[in-house]
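Deliverable D4.2, example record:
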Amino acid sequence: MVDNTSGGASPPPEGEILALDKNGQGLAEHSFRPGQDDLGGALDIDPQKETRSGRDEVSEQAVERARLNSGAKTAGEQAVKGAHSDQLLLDLKNRGLVIAPELAVADGAFGFWKALGELWPTTRGQRCWVHKTANVLNKLPKSQQPKAKRSLQEIWMAETCKDAEAAFNAFIAAYELKYDKAAECLAKDRQALLAFYDFPAEHWKHLRTSNPIESTFATVRHRTIRSKGCLSNKTALAMVFKLVDAAQKSWRRLDGHNQLPKLIQGVRFTNGIEVAANPAASQSQTAA
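Output generated by the structure prediction step:
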């Protein structure tokens, strides 16, 4: 559903999920930068090649591999990912998800959000704070990152949306003059980053990030990356199914699951607290 490749010398483009750490335990805090071993080990280099043409061939392979590692996207690659998102969401709908979801949580992958808007236009979006934090920090010098990270935490850890807006404005004011790209990266998704405040407070920890599902992806990726090239499409699909089937045994029920029927019924929440219906309005609707 999203592209998990990142790396290279430049920061990952907006909308990419960052790489897992070396143990496959969740997302790295900053972008993954493959080392020389990752690059050289992936190349088919003949040590006997000493001619200039041989070195040029190896150099071309290195450039191509670096381009793939860096997550460079051509228009064709973006179209393929958008098509995959369409297929995924359509499959969910065909298998019974006929009621439009209230909220979708993801990173900035354009293909996913475009497909979601076409299939369920009423579904709201919540941007993942883990990915957004990493994207913002990658646009700041290292000396500024610890302070900026604390300022970002003050936004999504605020008790009310009003306090979050104030912390949001403070961050923009503090960084927009010297680090305009970092401020712009945050400001452009203001509404989507604060959408979770309109849902039960018990759900906030699940809605602020897409990391819960990333743990399952980590289990799959940790094994499939080591067997790359050794499996056919069918055997790879079978292995992924069994890995996810085993991972689901450790899943637990969401916090505040008793609030889900209220959301389906259209009950409103403000700053995580249920908003009581207006008795006069309820009586007038009953009379009508």
